[in-house]
Each structure stands twice: as structure tokens, then as C-alpha cells.
Amino acid sequence: MKTFENLQDIWNQQPASNITKTSAELIKKGENHIKKVKSNHIGTIAIIGTTTVLLIAYFIWIAKYSFTIFTTGLSLMICTMLLRIILELISIKKFNALKIETSLLEYSKNAASFYTWRKSIHFIATPIIYIVYTIGFSLLIPTFHEQFSTPFFIYLLVSGYGFLIVFGFFLRRKLKHEMSILSFLKNIE
Predict the structure, then answer these.
(1) Nearest to 56 by CA among 84, 36, 76, 30
(2) Phi, psi of 109 (to 5 degrees)
(3) How confident is the model at residue 80 (pLDDT cuts 50, 70, 90)?
(4) How far, rounded to the nearest angstrom, does the alpha carbon of residue 179 sit from its chain's CA centroid?
(5) What is the pLDDT of residues 9-58, one digit of tens each?
(6) 3 state DSSP class of 100
(7) Rounded to whole angstroms, what are the CA distances from 177 to 34, 157, 162, 171, 173?
(8) What per-residue confidence (pLDDT) applies to 45?
(9) Dist CA 100 CA 34 (whole Å)
(10) CB 137 within 8 A of CB 77
(11) Contact in structure between 185 and 111 (CB atoms under 8 Å)
């Protein structure tokens, strides 16, 4: 009986559990997270898609006159955005393939695989896309300089490159977030 009393004393000395969430609340939180991830992918596609449509319309309007460095720059920008849309569509498909009905370990393994895919996008494809897009924008600069007044040209430079810099910081923050999720999922395994 001494052993049982020792175990009872150890049990009684444990701090009170501060877990207050029920399983239904955890499931709801998981479902909300899934909705958030899906809406982020859809939002990204919508933003990039809208920008791409505008660039294509502008390209069609400009390109009918001649093929120049300017149209080459626009082409690079359009192609990189289309590539990014394709990657986001593949990501949505892969994310939708995750089944929450599986065991925790199986789901964690599949989710880790998804975020490993996202990691390859962020570390390989995104820098290439970003660089080619910046090159494309830079090819527009000589034409902007010729066609627009100096104040508007400066505005285009500051807003264009400023956007690329700010976008880079947001991209870095998103990358850190997804990598922390990947790290967490790998620790579950």
C-alpha cells in the first residue's frame, strides 16, 4: 500500500490542468484555420489574377503598335504572375487533398508534406519569380522616363520599387509563419 500512497501523493501534487478547451472547440478552431488557409490562397490568386488581367490588357493595347523592350518587360511580368497563379492553384489542390478525418499522425505527415511543398515554392520559385518580375518592371523604366513627366516618372519609380520592397517584407513574414507551421508538424511525427 505504501507504493499506492506515494503515487497518490505525486498525483495530488500535480498542478491543476489549465486546459479549458473542449474537443468541439478544438475541431472548430481547426476548421477555422482550414478556412483561413483556403481564403489566403484564393485571395492571393484574386490579387495576382486581377493584376495579370490588367497587365495583359495593357500589353494588348501597347503590343499592337510594336515589339519593344517595354513589351518584353510586360511579358516577363505577365509570365511570372501566371506562373505564380499556377503554383497557387496547385497549392490549393494539394491543401484540399488533406483529409482531416485521418489520424493525427497521418494528418500531420500529410500537412508536413504540403508545407514542404510550400517551402520549395518559397525558397526556389518565389525568388526566381520575384527577380524576373523586377527585371520586367525595370525594362519598363526607359519608356516611363521618355513618356511621362519627371514628377510622375519619380512617382512610378518610388511606388513600383517601393511596392516590391514592401511586398518582400510581407512575403518574408508569410514564409516565417509557414515554416513555423512546418516545424511544429515535424515535431508531432
Answers:
(1) 76
(2) -65, -45
(3) very high
(4) 11
(5) 777 777 766 666 666 776 777 778 778 888 888 888 888 889 889 888 88
(6) coil
(7) 15, 30, 23, 10, 6
(8) 87
(9) 10
(10) yes
(11) yes
**Other C-beta atoms lying within 10 Å of the C-beta of residue 9:** 9
Q: In one letter, which amino acid is 48?
A: I
Question: Three-class SS string for 11-59?
Answer: HHHCCCCCCCCCHHHHHHHHHHHHHHHHHHHHHHHHHHHHHHHHHHHHH
What are phi and psi for residue 20, nearest 5 degrees?
A: -115, -5
Q: How far apart are CA 4 and CA 61, in angstroms?
A: 85
Residue 152, judged by CB atoms within 10 A of its CB (0-12, 13-18, 19+), counts as exposed
Cell numbers linked to 178: 509557414
Give the global pTM: 0.73
Helices (H), the chain: 2-13, 23-63, 69-96, 104-120, 126-147, 150-188
Q: Is 123 helix (H, G, I), strand (E, B) or coil?
A: helix
